[in-house]
Amino acid sequence: MAKNKDIKELKKELRKLKPADSIKKLKEMEEKRKEEITEIEDLIKDFEKEMKTDLVAEEIAPEARDVNIANLFEEESRELEFTVKKEAPGEDKSPGYVSIKQLYGDYTALKDIQYASITGSLTPAHLDKVDQIGERLDRTKYHSASQDAANILVASRATLYKIRKYAGLE
Question: Is residue 41 part of a domain?
Answer without folding.
Answer: yes
